[in-house]
Amino acid sequence: MRRCYVAGRIRSQRDYRERFAKAAERLRREGWSVYNPAAANLEGLPLARIMAHVLPQLCECDAIAMLPGWWMRLGGAWIEYLLARYLGLQRIYL
User: Fold this and answer.
1) Which of 44, 47, 75, 77 could crosslink 70 through cysteines, CB 3.0-4.6 Å?
2) Which alpha helices (DSSP H) does the chain contain, by range?
3) Boundaries of every domain in the chain
């Protein structure tokens, strides 16, 4: 089964868990195995530890799904997008 990573803004987004979960469910209905970093229970860890956990997950995926508004601020979603692009992953814009 093909694997997809969900990426989007988390910082300062109150409803990020719900937005990520909704996107993950949509992708699963479309036949993807999904990695949802918002469901990884990494809250409270230093940013370096969070990225050290999620970026290897992205490297194991076939695609990245970008949530609306991901590009509005520089941050983790940009890093994830650039890495996915560098790796030649399929990009899905939700």
Assistant:
1) 77
2) 16-29, 47-59, 76-87
3) 3-93
3-state DSSP call for residue 62? coil
Residue type, 38: A
- pTM over 0.85? The answer is yes
Query: In which residue are the tokens 């194991």 written?
Result: 60
Tabulate helix, strand, coil % of the chain (nearest 5). 50, 15, 35
Q: What is the CA radius of gyration of the chain?
A: 12
Treating both helix axes as pointing N-terminal to C-terminal, what angle do 76-87 and 47-59 enclose, rounded to 10 degrees? 30
Averaged pLDDT for residues 21-49: 93
Query: Buried b vs exposed e over 56-94: b needs ≥16 C-beta within 10 Å?
Result: eebeebbbbbbbeebeeeebbbeebbebbeeeebeebee
Contacts 24+ apart (CB under 8 A), 14-20: 19/67, 20/67
